[in-house]
Amino acid sequence: MAMFVVGAAKDQSVAAMLVGNMVPTKEDEAKLKEAEEFVRNLEFDEFDDDNFCNVLTGIELSEFDKVVDVVGNRVNLPDTDKDLIKVGKYAHTNKLVDHHIYYNVGKTDSLDYVVAVTLKTTDTTIDLAIIHYTIKFKLSPVKVEKKRQYWLFGFIPDGYVTSTTYEPKKLSGKELCGFQMFYRISAVQEFVKEYPDAAGGLPSN
Length: 205
What we know:
The protein has 205 residues and is an alpha+beta fold. It has helices at 14-20, 29-40, 61-74, 79-86, 173-194, and strands at 2-8, 44-60, 95-103, 110-120, 125-139, 142-152, 156-167. It has a 5-stranded antiparallel sheet with strand order 1-3-4-5-2, with helices on both faces. The protein has a two-stranded antiparallel ribbon with strand order 6-7. A hairpin with a 3-residue loop joins strand 6 (142-152) and strand 7 (156-167). Helix 2 packs across helix 5 (173-194) and helix 3 (61-74) runs antiparallel to helix 4. The longest helix has 22 residues, at 173-194.
């Protein structure tokens, strides 16, 4: 699943522009708080995450496709999504092209989230900033108790018997959206640690 946005560039680095396109809006702040509480209450049997980020500036347009292929292969990005990122070279100068890509969502207990921002700085050069945040997880099963009536001799009611089973935990559509939002912000935080100048894309208080 990909989202594609084109916009005018601000007087910021491409890294700051990437962050500015990932942080929640004022309207999303309440949803983010709800997502944080939800995720913190989840129990995992297995959890492994990995964060990859890179900022490349002054890429020659003639080399841009090769650079995208190398970076895209690093994060196992499908060819169709690599092609979307390559579209940035056709933008006007000082126009950013922003891609939000989710894949593998809910298929193998994994979430892959990629954000790529390109900024054509001159007629012959382009900048690229990319974040890839991946999570492989297994949610702890949910305890389910079922009560059934017990019959003495097959026809006399004689109380109830409770059986306990453990069933796989599944996220609803709303829960999955909150899950994605929470880890999107985690990816931003890791990116800013790696590239401090990207903090210029964070909203001012």
